Amino acid sequence: MATCNICGGQQFGTGPGGRRSCTDQPPKCLSCNSLERHRSLWQTYTALAEKIFFHEMSAIHFSRDSSIDRKWFHSYERSLYGINNSINIMDIDRADMSYDIVVCNHVLEHLSDDIIALRELMRITSGKGFLQFSVPGSCSLNKTRDWGFPDKTKHGHYRQYGMDFEKKLYEALPYNVYWLIAVQADPVTRAKCLFFFVTRSKKIITIIRLQLKTVSTIFNDCLKWGVGSWAGAT
Question: What band does 11 get if pLDDT is binned at 50, 70 and 90?
Answer without folding.
Answer: very high
